[in-house]
Design goal:
The protein is an alpha/beta fold and 334 residues long. It has three domains: 4-46, Orthogonal Bundle (434 Repressor (Amino-terminal Domain)); 51-155 and 282-324, Response regulator (Rossmann fold, 3-Layer(aba) Sandwich); 158-279, Rossmann fold (3-Layer(aba) Sandwich). It has 13 helices and twelve strands. Strands 7-6-8-9-10-12 form a six-stranded mixed beta sheet, sandwiched between helices. A four-stranded parallel beta sheet has the order 2-1-3-4. The chain starts with a helix and ends in a 5-residue tail after the last strand.
Length: 334
């Protein structure tokens, strides 16, 4: 089995330089780093996680805290794992209910694992700072994914994605565009408003409440807005329920009503008609988290470890939130 010494000898650098290049910690010139990784791959080098853990005083493990096994979350986690594995890191998932985030027991469990870093997948409605702050205090960098926090995080640029979808509907000649979703979905409604205001139009919304059954969703929309000819839905799940309800009432999509979802779930490409939607950038989110936790940006997070907790608005954190753009996937429904 190849060793760090073998790689260093072939490249002509020190073992320490090889370690920095493979771990992503510390500066190594880009051409040398690429050469080291190429040689490591060719020689079949595999790091010894136990030896590294003993040497560094922490594991080569990244822990992702997630409140569900949703396919969209799994795409982010898979992307993260694919990017950190070549550097010798492993990814594990800890399932936690939203009510557990920020509890002492969850913080203690994460600290006991001595991870190299943590990522937290919650929702924009949840401020995960009570979980993130104690981890930084313990010297563990933590990156919230698509969640509110006073610390550096990675989020989806939902307003821009929804605005692009609404612009698409306008370009198709749709005159009465209705946003269908919960009234609290402010990031999406902001995108709808931004796009419609550019065309001098009012923002029209429909919140059906907790009952999302397809018959109630479609009938409520048509009763409230009988002149609707296009819908931007909160999610693919909402859009597909609405699609089924419109079919049941003989309302042809997209002939009478164009329909756009959000997420690009597997089912979106297999509905009839197939669903036009705003795709979540799961792969790019995973890559951004990897760069923060084990890449060149990690020292910027390590600088926050042990520092005073920031204000609730994040004003004391000199780190930008990574906003990842979405992609409009045009299919048959719009």
């Amino acid at each position: 089995m190849a060793t760090l010494k073998d790689i260093a000898g072939e490249v002509g650098v020190s073992i320490r330089t090889v370690t920095r290049a493979l771990s992503g910690n510390g500066y190594v010139r880009e051409d040398i780093r690429d050469r080291i990784r190429e040689v490591a791959g060719r020689l079949g080098y595999r790091p010894d996680p136990l030896a590294q853990s003993l040497r560094l005083g922490r594991s080569r493990q990244l822990v992702v805290v997630s409140h569900s096994v949703d396919e969209l979350h799994m795409a982010k986690i898979a992307s993260l794992e694919q990017r950190v594995r070549p550097a010798g890191f492993a990814v594990s998932v800890l399932m936690a209910r939203a009510s557990e985030l920020g509890t002492d027991s969850l913080v203690d469990e994460l600290r006991s694992r001595r991870p190299a870093g943590v990522a937290v997948i919650a929702t924009l409605e949840i401020d995960v700072t009570p979980l993130v702050a104690p981890l930084y205090a313990a010297g563990i960098p933590c990156v919230p994914i698509d969640s509110r926090s006073a610390y550096p995080s990675v989020v989806i640029d939902r307003p821009a994605g929804v605005a692009e979808a609404v612009e698409h509907l306008v370009s198709r000649g749709r005159r009465r565009i209705v946003y269908v979703g919960p009234s609290g979905s402010t990031s999406r409604t902001r995108g709808v408003r931004q796009a419609l205001e550019r065309h001098g139009r009012e923002t029209v919304t429909f919140d059906p409440g907790p009952d999302l059954r397809r018959d109630r969703l479609a009938s409520g929309l048509l009763e409230r807005h009988p002149d609707v000819d296009a819908v931007q839905a909160f999610s693919d799940e909402w859009a597909l329920e609405l699609l089924a309800g419109l079919h049941a009432r003989g309302v042809r999509v997209p002939d009478y009503v164009a329909l756009v979802g959000f997420d690009d779930r597997w089912a979106a490409a297999h509905s009839w008609p197939s669903l036009t939607t705003v795709a979540q950038p799961g792969e790019r989110i995973g890559a951004a988290v990897a760069e923060l936790l084990v890449g060149e940006d990690r020292p910027r997070l390590e600088a926050l470890c042990g520092a005073p907790a920031p204000d609730g608005d994040g004003s004391s954190v000199d780190e930008p939130t990574r906003s990842i753009p979405t992609e409009l996937v045009v299919r048959g429904s719009a």
